[in-house]
């Protein structure tokens, strides 16, 4: 495994003089859905997230190991979109720090002592320089940690919110900004020309609390929940098959190259993408080795070489500004990972050595033809 | 689950008056390979099959639970092909019965008291009316059953030969013949017009000892080995990824609809297809319910709805006649499963109800274009 | 692994001239329980067996892969006891054969064309020469096989009835009789003097349909249900822990030496013992190697050397005669496995070589003192 | 789950004015063994730890996810003992902080710029006020992280050093001192009188980097390595069984109540205890709920209620002072967990409600008789 530094951005976000908040971890996603009954059924009944509380137009859900109020807040609204990527900070004062940090950047900032979400107290929401709605909070209602409540765990029990994944056009610029916020890169995808296609960044010592995927953004690529073991993820597939909802499966299951985790991608009733994820590795040392994957390594996204379905690259869901309006997308100007991984013959199979023979059983895969 | 009888063939193989042999189970595959070192490395070093014995130009391998000499015999030869699908019969007299059964059908038959393979005694080989080389034997050398030898089991230990899969153009005709031989159908794939695309038949009480897949035949579709658990199959994928041999993975892993087993398809150095398989169900009662799947049920081949790669339908490896010459293929005249499961728009996604909406993330999958 | 023939019994049951029925497999246990609500809650709600039907005083349950009416019939009665070990036979005529076989032995025999149990047709019940109530039937109502109904499977889904285990004083005598009935030994436990402590016998090609455990009998040692994987068994333990019913766990989980299966023993609300079991091996060849374990091999009952709790040897539940009265026990006269595996120092740790050192961390285990 | 604060110690270690070092995590154990060949074979060949380097009298091993030089250093010496519990700190300056912190406490302190172990740089070793030899280092040689090297992973691959466990007589005193060092309690075991039997403390956000177990100390209770999944731990048991080394298994496998992890305890050739451990939970929030278990809750140590073998409580291995001499033990004066969990009848089964009935199959377990 090699590591290549991500180039400095041409047009960086200025680094604030104010210190960043001490972010503990990604904590919850505030997700706007267009049909609360349908989405609630998917997340609570199909995926088995625990309902902490619900009210008119909203339901708050959590994973089995969680002790804060929720990891997912569904709110009914006119469009499918993310209202906030919410992070927990170490202390109440870190909310102040977050507010000062973003105010110095002249971002839209809103502070609410009473909080923005059920069960959550004093918080600040911002639209960051990349266009994403972020929330920072410390005060939160504690609820029962159901880690030991195996009588309530289904075969595919979700035990933890693992990470977010954001689509943004200029990955080096976004990385530099997130590093200013105190995040650290653990892995990335580049090509030999130095183009950065994606990067993974963490606060808690896993591979990521959020990832930055190059594309038209700001947008939500996915939110990821963790299971204990791989068979739990397979059980979710089996359950979807039995329920005749296999169409919810977009990609996987498989083993990631990046992160080394086992994965599955689903699409919820609004098309929001949900990853089920397990078994990455500890990254908490300051000199944790960064892993750079070559964009032409066809095991980078799936360690078993299974191709990535095109929708996984091309589809993402909008984010909202602080006023609840969808944020317009900025197109990516760097090369597209999807496009560079399609050969001249129209097949998505890719490898650095163009002369390497491609097996016949790979040749029928994913010819994209004219439909893109 | 419903069951629809397979129609009687238009042009049946005559039913012999002689009783069929009492077949216990599929026992070993006699496989001709073009590079014994490469194939031996794949089966012994990568997949971890146990080498029982080897000699000039051959190696005999077995699974960990096996007590007969081998489940796979690799022999080097000029072309990649199957020399025999070998079945064990209950008694020495059943070898006589097999000989008489096929002689009555005027098939090519060769009886060798000394056996055709190392460790195997008195046996008969035939080229059956469908063109396949079959062997029947009882006498065989016992070897140590390594079921308890966990110090020798790798993470993807193969514990049993599970089944063969044969490509044949006329499935109802092949089924009727195999029923005369004493096999029983457990599952099949049909359409509402009664076309039969594939059938699964068993002697031992699992879903199959062999399956009949509609296509140009006679040909070997695959040979399948069983693991104890699903994670063993995932470990094989991980191992291939680590060895940078992920190109060996053709399809999967996934859950079959048919058989309910968890599966993975690999291609060996000659392109012979190998399935890794686990967890089907007991079928030993004479009134075991037959399950008929609709060819337009997109969960039939993969219960999670993941598409079948085209090569899986179109590629198979030759079989040899008793003289060691590849048998010419007969084309299938019934509808092709691959073709009927491609919509008018060129996508492989299929469902009985043409009006059902297809999610956008399925639309990029497997457009086949001009390459077939 | 070595194999030692079981000695001929001194006082054999005569071999009938009538042919035995062709037994397919163990099919269901007719179990008398003293509190149907409590037992139903245990088997249906805690273990997750599927209720096929219920009526006043009874409930019929099945496993997820089953297609016959039930694998367990609970009936409320005055004492906790087994009313019948029921086996399915290949054809209706095999019920006649079973009747003739036992009538020739002058056993109590009752034939009921309407069956003895809900969903079961023409059947014969006998009290066999060993004192056990056996039922043989072919006609049975088909129900939906829920193998694919993963939306109904819990984390510890029971997919198959695997076997019975019967306590009987004279194991060689019982083995010889069961062989006359068409069963075949797969494994046994002996000592160097030829004392037989237990034997495993099969019809279907697994390690057993029933086992014979030496002790005061006739009695039910346990009934065993299979899961797909080992984690399913661990999930049952976790569920019992979460429900604060860990007292139901008597022994395990662990790996058996005999059978090579992964196991767990529970006790139901009446004290009936239930095993959860997974992953033994194929035994269907007529020359399948028999494995004889030395009674002093401390890995025979638990391959990891964990000691067997004394109750597992000393406790069993009664069986009923055809009139519903508990059958009196006959004491074992051969050596007791429990006693011979306790050293002179009162510890249960055993090994053939008395001089082998016992680690200090094994010395505190299972000193039995005066309580036996 | 409830939480009860641990009482302040009667005789506290003074809190230094110097700030503690910023400890990242437990990093490696420096273990003295009496037969390097035997110990190396156990850790490298049986357990499959990766040998990073070796030299005369020593071998350095690591887990598959590790990127620092080693997690276990075996050094041959005259007695079996722990030479150092080594922790990695965030920066080089934290080594200075560690030195100052312990010098203020007048502990034996040794600073070596060249390090104490192969591959490790500037470090300080101390004998802490509880008598334990601790090392703090930052500089360390990076080695290849073999997380993706699945071709080298066995079925029981150890992927991470998880924690240490130390035996100390006065748990509240030890906890208070470790809190001064910056550790935080995640779980503990108490009785209603406030006696503290054990406590778990963390730096990295898992349940622990070290635990404090009440007993005669200072001593090493165990060192724990993590696997990805539970089946990996079962595979270690199977491997030990196959190698006829099942005597190495002291306790388990099972589910802990405390930590919710799945566990197995082994004893190495010198009797040092090694835990294999998987799947506890995230504890990184500052207000992470502490879980206090009642010493009479018989699911606290094994969530399935399986009894703890006495040796697990009574046996531990010595630690060395900075001169390499074994440190004398101080006896525990508080109640013993082993003794309070044995009933008046001599059985180890325990529960808060003395009137709760004990099932008959639990009564034979672990009667301790006279041997204590």
Structure description:
Chains A, B, C, D: InterPro entries: DHPA_dOase_Mn/Fe, Glyas_Bleomycin-R_OHBP_Dase, Glyas_Fos-R_dOase_dom, GlyoxalaseI/FosfomycinResist, HPCD_C_sf, VOC_core, Xdiol_ring_cleave_dOase_1/2. Chains A, B, C, D: GO terms for molecular function: 3,4-dihydroxyphenylacetate 2,3-dioxygenase activity; ferrous iron binding. Chains A, B, C, D: Keywords: Aromatic hydrocarbons catabolism, Dioxygenase, Iron, Metal-binding, Oxidoreductase. Four copies of one chain form a homotetramer. With 372 residues, the first copy, chain A, is of the alpha+beta class. Chain A has a single domain, classed as 2,3-Dihydroxybiphenyl 1,2-Dioxygenase, domain 1, CATH 3.10.180. Helices cover 16% and strands 30% of the residues of chain A. The first copy, chain A, is built from seven helices and 18 strands. Chain A has helices at 36-46, 92-104, 171-180, 230-242, 310-314, 337-340, 360-363, and strands at 23-33, 50-55, 58-62, 72-76, 81-89, 109-112, 123-127, 133-137, 160-168, 184-190, 196-202, 210-214, 219-226, 249-255, 262-267, 273-278, 291-294, 317-318. In chain A, strands 9, 10, 11, 12, 13, 14, 15, 16, 17 and 18 form a ten-stranded mixed sheet that branches. An eight-stranded mixed sheet of chain A has the order 2-3-4-1-5-8-7-6, covered by helices on one side. In chain A, a hairpin with a 6-residue loop joins strand 14 and strand 15 (262-267). The longest helix of chain A is centred in the N-terminal third of the chain and has 13 residues, at 92-104. The relative contact order of chain A is 0.15. The B-D interface holds B 148-155, 157, 229, 231, 235, 238-239, 241-243 and D 148-155, 157, 229, 231, 235, 238-239, 241-243.
